[in-house]
Amino acid sequence: MSLSLREQLLQAGLVTTKQVKKAQQEQNKQRPTGKFNPDVKSARELAAEKFQIEKIARDQELNRQRQEKAERKARMTQIWQLVEQNRITRVESDDYFNFVHLNKIHRIAVDASLRERITTGQVIIVRYGKFYAPVLPAIAERVRERDAESVVDLSLKITTPEVSTDDPYKDFTVPDDLMW
Fold first, then answer.
1. 3-state class of 135 per DSSP?
2. Residue 53 near residue 45, CB atoms below 8 Å
3. How far apart are CA 116 and CA 177, in angstroms?
4. What is the per-residue pLDDT across 33-47, written as a single tens digit (0 to 9) for each?
5. pTM (2 decimals)?
6. Is the Cα dihedral 65, 71, 76, 80 positive or negative?
7. Distance CA 137, CA 148 (A)
8. Which residues form the domain of 108?
9. Which of 5-9, 83-87, 113-117, 171-175 has the lowest mean pLDDT?
């Protein structure tokens, strides 16, 4: 049988029973008693608080995203109503006006007078949903207030290339009234 260190020291006479009892009392004082101390939080409580804070932040972010989505949907509904009520009636024609919007080529049916009004800026093309419609500039401005991307910008950004001296086609001009 093995004796504990305490018992071995007592048998050897290196410590007294009084010293052993005092050491045992010191050891018992260092052990946690299991009593509740409101100032000291356990790791589990700290983790729970951290989780709650993160959950609140996630919930706020989700609510913000939902609110933005609802606002965007309301703006798109307003745009739809504006355009449906104020668009210029569709023309049944085999003649189309082609334009670039959001890096894609689109087209709408036009007649000669509508084409002229579009090119002079008297009529603006607006996207609503998946469709495009010509509207008056005042309506286009109201649509632009709600969503700037819905208004098609037809401003021509043509840059004239520098003509080199050895260009064999420098005497030939390209007509700017070509129709696609």
1. strand
2. no
3. 12
4. 556 566 667 788 888
5. 0.54
6. positive
7. 13
8. 45-159
9. 171-175
Rounded-to-integer distance, Cα 169 and Cα 85, Å:
50
Three-state SS across 3-47?
A: CCHHHHHHHHCCCCHHHHHHHHHHHHHHCCCCCCCCCCCCHHHHH
User: Coil, strand, or helix at residue 114?
Assistant: helix
| 80, part of any domain | yes
- Tell me the angle at which helices 5-12 and 17-30 cross, rounded to the nearest 10 degrees: 160
Q: Does a structural domain hold residue 95?
A: yes
Whether residue 176 is contained in a domain is answered as: no
Closest CA to 132 of 67, 71, 88, 168: 88
Integer angstrom CA distances of residue 81 from 4, 77, 91 = 90, 6, 20
Place of tokens 């029973």: 17
- Token pair, residue 154, equals 């037809």
Determine, yes or no, domain membership for 85: yes
Q: Which helix (H) or strand (E) holds 126?
A: strand 124-128
What's the Rg (C-alpha) of the chain? 41
Give the chain's domain count: 1
CB < 8 Å & 24+ apart, contacts of 91-97: 96/180, 97/125
